[in-house]
Design goal:
The complex is a heterodimer. By secondary structure, chain A is of the alpha/beta class. Chain A folds into two domains: 128 residues, NADH:ubiquinone oxidoreductase Nqo5 subunit (Beta Polymerase, domain 2), CATH 3.30.460.80; 31 residues, no CATH class. Chain A has four helices and nine strands, in the order αββαββββββαβα. Chain A has a five-stranded mixed sheet, with helices on one face. A two-stranded antiparallel ribbon of chain A has the order 4-5. In chain A, β6 and β7 form a beta hairpin. The relative contact order of chain A is 0.13. In chain B, α2 runs antiparallel to α6 and α3 crosses α6. Chain B has a single domain, classed as Rossmann fold. Helix content of chain B is 27%, strand content 8%. By secondary structure, chain B is an alpha/beta fold. In chain B, strands 1-2-3 form a three-stranded parallel sheet. Chain B has a two-stranded antiparallel ribbon with strand order 4-5. Chain B contains six helices and five strands, in the order αααβαβαβαββ. The chains are: A alpha/beta, B alpha/beta. The interface between A and B is medium-sized, with 18 and 17 residues. The complex binds iron/sulfur cluster. Iron/sulfur cluster binds next to α5 of chain B.
Amino acid sequence: METPEQIRERILARFPGAEVNVVTNPGPAAQHSLLLGAAHAVAIAVFLRDDPVLRLDTCSNVTGVDWLDREIVETVRKPLPTEPGSDPAAPARILEEKIKRLVPGHLEVVYHLYSVALKQGPVILRLRTFDRGANVTLPSLTPVWRACEFQEREVFDLYGVKFTGHPDLRRILMWDEFQHHPMRKDYVEPDDYEWEPTPHDAVLDKARRHYPATPAAPQEGAAP
Amino acid sequence: MSDATPFPAPAAPEISAAERDELRRHGILLTSLEELYNWGRSNSVWPLQFGLACCAIEMIAASMARFDIARFGSEVFRPSPRQADLLIVSGTVTKKMAPQVVRLWNQMPEPKYCIAMGACAISGGPFKQGYNVLKGIDRFIPVDVYIPGCPPRPEALLHGLMQLQEQIRAQKISGPEAPRHLRPEASGEFPVPEFGGSDLVPPRNPAVWQPPTIVRTE
Ligand code: SF4
């Protein structure tokens, strides 16, 4: 099967100006993916489905990822101009600067595509929302692959991505009156802890809050 | 009639169970209305045909020929709550499902019993800290027998059923210790929780269940 880079070249040849980037996966699976801009996503999806070389006729999986805002520290190296009169053979002086950059969070939807007809795959598509707050709209790929319908509903339910063009965008796992998105990393669950005999980690913190007499977890090997 | 119970039973004969068995062995059947009534009920506990998750597979296995729940008179899995005596909560009760489970329980006629089968039905089990799992069905309906396990084997379910039969046989049919269905003031219906913005409303029925308090002995 074509590599993601080759697929990207062909997409760009077909849709000049489309936003397509290859996201590499450094892990041993090395499943690289294509990050699509929302504007051309549906057209590119139709192209991938109907292309005779790829024939990606099946969307096997749709999932969501929540990326919080994060701070990235980058080290920039700048050569300093050599001072006049210094030894020309001395090594060039380099100034290292640490720059903090705030990467805004976003929600990501990942599609795994396979071709049953040609027995190949997966091709992985990613779509990203602009942020995690008000701009969480993405085009739905359900008109292209019918199998996305329930899974996009699940992403909508658990992550809060709004899919435009979805035929029936309702919650699927939680009830309609529910107001949160429980798979978001900043979801705060209802405070309904109740006593457990052996709390630990995060549960131990809750135990201390609800039952202040809870002692610390017994140390390994300590006398009872 | 001064006695308000529907079955004004004659006083039970002062005779021990061992003596009664001895008499039975000699062909003399001595019984009381209470014993006959409980004997009949305990041997025809019809469960509701209702499963929620993986534990239901073990419940189905228990009803098949290898484990043969028919030995205990409980093979008649009824498809309607109106005809069932026993609700086996076999599996994970999600918060979305909980109102429906309580509704099924309310639709069952008295006398009715509830078995919480498996870690999930007892406490939420492996999903206890999850966002959508009820931490035990006993928050909303009274449970008669708890069967731990994940999943409990069919033998465990049969054992739980035998425990329930023993409970039924020990019931009094009059007096203050009579079961719920013989006390006119006790209702067999329990409030159905509503779906709220972030949890069930109310999250539990305080008349049925209270969070445990820890008593520490220093
Ligand atoms: S207790 Fe275990 S087997 Fe039973 S429903 Fe829960 S997870 Fe499944």
